[in-house]
Write a structure and sequence with these properties.
single chain; 294 residues; alpha/beta; Rossmann fold; eight-stranded mixed beta sheet; 11 helices; globular
Length: 294
Amino acid sequence: MASLTANGITIEYEVSGSGPPLLLVMGLGGQMVDWPQEFVDLLAERFTVIRFDNRDIGLSTKFDWTPPPRSAALKQRFSRKPPEVGYYLSDMADDAVGLLDGLNISQAHVVGMSMGGMIAQSIAIDHSERVLSLTSVMSTTGNPRVGGIDPKLLVPLLRRPDLTPENAIDESVWMFQRISGSAWDEATHRENQAASLERSFCPEGTARQLACIMASPDRTPQLQQLDVPTLVIHGLADRLVLPSGGIATVKAIPDARLLMLPDMGHDIPKPRFAEIVDAIATNAQRANTPALAV
């Protein structure tokens, strides 16, 4: 792993594989090491894969503004007064483009998961000339009427204790037991979370990212203007970002294609790794770039 300065912050990143560049953008509170390694390795057989820590997470720059409590941030999302924040999804998109600049990459295929899908959409909106293809995974448009959390999950989630190094793994297990698909494995999740916890622990950063999501505007009008090969992937079992978010995304972006998976929740199921990588490569072929192996 390495780091560089871009958009005024330090970004930790890693590059692997060979072929056309593909930027992986992680979701809320996730570090770049939270991408399943086997999934990354499959992508790296076809692409030069760039993954990185978003601002406020992992080993990238941390901010110091005070985020609103989770309950306040979520409530404000549905009001006319969004929470006051120190940055927006568009700023996080600028970080990603700054990383590409630092790596001397003029264009890349962009794949974002959850909040990373929102950032990926923002990259395509604000920096369309840099995006060869777009894949938005388990994400949504920013319209508060779609892609929300399952109401049955919201109240229990808001009642969970604050994260500490001692309870972080158990709290993550509690969450993913409720939002993952049928292939999710607790033992593997605990092992991966232990490695992430040892690398970095910054719950305040996650809270700032959440407030950033809630404060950022609806992207639907801008998505309707995109002209980029787009694939939308969503799990029918997703309770954190309901499938309506993926459906709204594919309806908003002209000529976008949709892959809905019945056994997928808010995770990338291991039995589907190869299928999802194939779908990403097929979407990438729609761009005017050298042919990819499929």
